[in-house]
UniProtKB/TrEMBL annotation:
It holds the Pfam family AcetylCoA_hydro. This is 4-hydroxybutyrate CoA-transferase. It comes from the Bacteria. Signal peptide: none annotated. One of its GO terms (biological process) is acetate metabolic process. SUPFAM superfamilies: NagB/RpiA/CoA transferase-like (SSF100950). Residues 12-184 form the Acetyl-CoA hydrolase/transferase N-terminal domain. One of its GO terms (molecular function) is acetate CoA-transferase activity. Coiled coil: none annotated.
Amino acid sequence: MGASAGGGPRHITAEQAAALVKPGDWVDYGASFTQPDAFDRALAARKGELSDIWLRNCLSLKPRAVLEADPDGEVFRCFNWHFSGYDRKKHDAGICHYIPVHLGEIPHYYRRNIDRVDVAVLKAAPPDEDGCFNLGPNSLWHRAVIERAKTVVIEVSSQIPPARGTDNRIPASEVDYVIEGDAGTTPELPNAQPTDVDRAVARLIAEEIEEDACLQVGIGGMPNAVCALLLEGGARRFGIHTEMLNDGLVELYRAGRVDGSKKAVDPGLITYTFALGTRVLYDTVRDNPDFLCHAVDFTNDPFVIARNARAVAINNTTQIDLQGQAASESDGHRHISGTGGQAQFVRGAYASEGGKSFICLASTYERKGVRKSRIALNLTPGNVVTTPRSDMMYVVTEYGIANLKGRSVAERAQAIIGLAHPDFREDLARQAREAGLLPRYWR
């Protein structure tokens, strides 16, 4: 739509901005802490006068007022690119629905497949000296949202830490309206404390990571434990090219362990598309020239990832079968998180010269007081395959590490059984033979 007549965006109240939304509209909230709050509350207050409002968002870090005001989803229908814990609860309640996606493809979806963004509302830092609104360390697909939107609203908040980037500064000429957002602090994601199992898995992975490896680390205790062990492991230096920038990676940087001089992509810089963690992380990236925030279709492109030699991808899964399929985002038909960038980084890391991909998991979990194996003959019915067996490289549990590349089905089954908890190995081997995965003659 462009800025209002007179050369700049018009300053209005949150209530006036919410009044722009009409029945049947698609409203886009962006992701993580770029999701609006003042606008969200004002739109929720209009529940009684609206109908059929379709909302896109991702990784909610706090309750969404529109969903709290409409617990039955009669007015506000939410569609989500990747679940947080809050989003998962709303999915369980039937009012938040997942959109299957490789996270790195979302900008293309907006440009090629999504017909309507009637109103886009994104939280950003106040204008800089050039008059641009900075989305902070959170580029993702927001540039594509703004290109597609009929009306663009920026909710200004001083809590957003401005960050250096290629697509996270929004010129005033691309904004229609500006509203004042909340004061306060940016939502934080506390660090999960690593367990003994996390540390055991991390030790196996850390031994495989070489000098000048270029790191991608996912969310959770295991990947953070890997970063902690890399801090202890001598004077090695690393590069970083990741989707999510977390506290573990930032601690490596703060300890002087990130050099990045051997990277082919953004040499000497830390490349990422969004940051999520504690205040220390946000303070570190604030206007820091060592960090560069790109759009997600750049950071997650397997061909871009593979340009860096010794790319290393470290990601979690929740279940793996005996052929090497990893289910990392659902529990049967119950959706938990999302595909995210896992499959893209698995492929990019393997295609890199000297690159390695690690999918890690604890061998067991407990449900209602009963211990169960995360390694199974077959995935739980309804479980979504996040990383196919043909893409799997290293699988790691607290009992060992196995490289599945080049291995037959029988060799894979045998190797994966060896990673299971000892209490489950005999039964898994029996099931594998009965299913024909292990031949009768196989020792």
